[in-house]
Amino acid sequence: MKWLISKWQLLFLGSLFCAAAQAQGNDASKKIIDKLSQFEANYPAEKAYLQFDKQYYAAGDTIYFKAYVTAGGLHKLSSLSGVLHVELINTKNKIDQSIKLQLDGGLAWGDFALPDSLPADSYRIRAYTQWMRNDGDFGFFERVIPIASVNAAKVPESGGKQPPLNFKPDIQFFPEGGGLIAGINTKIVFKAIGANGLGIDVSGVVVDSDHKQVAAFASAHLGMGFFYFTPAPGKTYAAKVTYRGGLHDEVNLPATETEGISLSVDNDSLPKATVTLSTNETYFNRHKGNAYTLMIYSGGLISTVDCKLDSVVTRLDILKRKLNTGIATVTLFSAAGEPLCERLFFVQNYDQLTLNAGSDKTHYTKREQATIKLNVVNRKGEPAEGHFSASVINESLVPEVNGNEDNILSNLLLTSDLKGHVEQPGYYFADTGYVARANLDLLMLSQGYRKFQWKQVLDTAQRTLALQRETGITISGRVDNLSGKPIARGLINLIPSRGVGLLTASTSDEGLFTFSNLSFTDTAHFVLNAVNSKGKNSTQITWFNNDQYKPAVRPYPFTGLPLLNDTALNAYAVNEKMEQREVANYTRGKGVMLKQVNVHEKKPDNQYRTLSLAGAGGADQVMHADEIEQIQGSLITSLDGRLHGITFLGVPPNQAPFLTGIGIRAPMLVIIDGTESSPNALYGFIANDIETVEVLKYASASIYGVGAGHGVLIVTTKQTRQLQQKDVVSIGVLPIKVMGFYKARIFYSPKYNTPATLTGKKPDLRSTIYWNPEIKTDAAGNAGFDFYNADSPGTYKVTIEGIDKDGNLGRQVYRYTVE
Question: Interior CA angle at 190 toward 188 and 194, to 5°?
């Protein structure tokens, strides 16, 4: 082939593009570059990454995290979105807790407080912006979070889930370049997974349709491996597979094409990647002299090579130092701009930030102050200003079973651009030797293998976005007349229930209104008031409660715990149980004397709708909707620990309420909407469904007869459960309740800076010693922080991650000893 090379530098953020051609390309390559540039400008991709204070937790813990949201291939902190949605997803693929975080320059931090009744299992945390949802779940952050139970030391084996009895291992084969072509020696990569969805060792042979062996294979890493062979025209091929454990299977390979062109990449060399284009004689004779374009895309950098087909094999070297670290894509286009074949390969230019963190000592005593100094430089050795987060844990209490977990490098540079679950992603960055690089290339060929996505790039004009960028909290809806027809040019007011700040907007021709870029914390109450263009309030207001329309939760496909084994989780559960017991022992009987408060009058709580036989105001405790909805998710999660003298026992879906402090254990009588129900009938309700929850005990419960001897729990559901947009309607005036930004808890780190605190008897058994979500380095690249160690000896692990202002990523793990 004859090559004509042009290089285009695409600078994204702020919609600025610079292009300079070193040589004149053909019309096809110019069109492709223009389309890709337009696509990047109009649909910049965001990604989210969360750093946590530790790998796993126990019920009753608080999960602390820092969020980084980046935009574009250079991983610069995003200024596109102002809202990040973060959700805790339970083992039933339901959202237990959901919060909104206000992004400031792509940064935010938050937490989830776990109920102490939470069952042990593998949960998930998901984070996304509304803008990401236009591309499905691409860019979403999702992490499996194992949670132990402080109520039972034993965690169910493999997370309490067993594979179906009929589930068998599976293997897939991926020809490099996309297909098998007769006469072309082709690299075939395979990936085998076991019953738990994770990689499994496998071996076997490939035979043709005459039962002749043409190749043999064996996995090299996490069920992945490769082999070469040359398919013959008119023959079919099958792999005879032997899985670990002796199970056998036979799998057909893709059909052989009689003619075609293939693309392969040799990525073994550190400084360069060699691209090879191969054709068989049939294809070459039919397409000799045709024009093609080879495009290399690497994190915003576009390089094109224009060529003509004048030989059956052509090679081209790509200098990797000219590309950006991360996944690069090589695509071959025809003269008509049709993508023919594609290959992903990974570029590691060692251009991450260098973090130099160290403590003032390598050995400490308990409760001694530790001081950490941090200096950050970029690849050029220049000071780096950036944003970082730091976690300090006692590894003796939170043992690290798998050191290859996902981190800021593996996530933003690797896993966020691949489909499906990637096992041990940190391995590919902890070890950058030849074997690890070869295994990473297997990952590119198996999990990076995909059908073309160029259609959405080349058909930019036909793409419509369902969701726009969310820069703040939005309150929107529609105003109709009493006949249900939209009111144009009407006036609507948004009135906060507390404080000042009346906002006014006009309705569109379709009767729509929007109040955008609002900012407030927690749940806020507003009143919407609307009049038509003549000032009459004969209007109907519909509020679009968009918080109810979250992206679907995908079932988690893996049955095992991918981060650690049961032994580590059980050990952690035992320690957490011990810590809570020690705290309870220390505080028992040590109340604090408060000043006397004289209550002159208590406003009766008897103005609410109820189906209780005792009537409104006849209960020992009442929780109303606004209080119930303070903790989102399942009703039981919201109520547990908040109903006085009541606990929920059992394993979902068989959890039931019980009165505490009575001799005979039996579940309470449960009444739902006036009807006696099963004690475990509360499972399946969510907090937003409920109007009131009432508790009747002892004498109060006697109205329900002898069956109420263990108490009565009365639940009254809303008359319109889970209101849809069309249902939230009011005449002239509509009170609404809107979820605001979550205000993150401040991590408590005790200070032992006086003799009394240093020798205090209250035990300090913390597993997370220190958490700081926002550490900024100065112009010299310096920052620092200090904290006090806990009582437990062991190896303390300091993990620091972050991004500088240019999008360079950095991570360091540092350890010291406490004796």
Answer: 170
Q: Which amino acid makes up residue 719?
A: Q
Rounded Cα–Cα distance for residues 781 and 800 (Å): 14
> CB 39: neighbour CB atoms within 10 A?
18
Coil, helix or strand at residue 143: strand
* Dist CA 810 CA 354 (whole Å): 6
Residues 526, 495: contact at Cβ < 8 Å? yes
- What does 342-385 look like in DSSP terms, one character per residue? EEEEEE----SPEEEEEES-SEE-TT-EEEEEEEEE-TTS-B--
Exposed / middle / buried, residue 434 (Cβ in 10 Å: 0-12, 13-18, 19+): exposed
Which pair of tokens denotes residue 766? 């913390």
**Residue 618: Cβ within 10 Å count:** 16
Task: Count Cβ atoms below 10 Å from residue 317 Cβ, excluding itself.
Answer: 12
What's the CA gap between 261 and 280, in Å, rounded? 7
Tokens, residue 191: 């990936």
Q: What angle do CA 605, 606, 608 make, to 5 degrees?
A: 105
∠ at Cα 441 (440, 447), nearest 5°? 85
Please write the tens of the pLDDT for every residue from 586-628.
444 444 434 434 444 445 677 788 888 888 888 999 999 888 8
Question: Which tokens is 197 given?
Answer: 């969805």
Between CA 766 and CA 749 the distance in angstroms is 9
Handedness of CA 555, 559, 561, 562 (dihedral sign): negative
| Residue 801 CA neighbour count, 13 Å, CB half | 23
Which residue numbers in the chain have pLDDT < 50?
Answer: 2-25, 152-166, 449-452, 559-564, 586-602, 721-729
* Alpha carbon distance, N-terminus to C-terminus of the chain: 68
DSSP string computed for 49-68: EEEESSS-EETT-EEEEEEE
Token pair 């776990």 in the structure block, residue: 114
Type of residue at 808: N
Q: Are 153 and 567 in contact (CB under 8 A)?
A: no
Closest residue by Cα to residue 521 from 745, 230, 297, 765: 745
Cis preceding-peptide flag for 163 (omega within 30 of 0): no
Q: In a 3-state reduction of DSSP, which class is residue 235?
A: coil
Q: Which helix (H) or strand (E) holds 755?
A: helix 755-758
Can you tell me the distance from the alpha carbon of 305 to that of 6, in angstroms, rounded to the nearest whole number? 6
- The H or E element containing residue 32 is helix 27-42
Using DSSP, state whether 768 is helix, strand or coil: strand
Quick one: residue 124, left, alpha or beta (phi over 0 = left, psi -120 to 50 = alpha)? Answer: beta
* Cα–Cα distance for residue pair 669/666, rounded to 1 Å: 9
- Which tokens hold the place of 5? 């090379």
CA dist list (Å): 92 to 147, 565, 683, 788: 14, 21, 12, 40
298-335, pLDDT tens digit by residue? Answer: 888 888 888 889 999 999 999 999 899 999 999 999 98
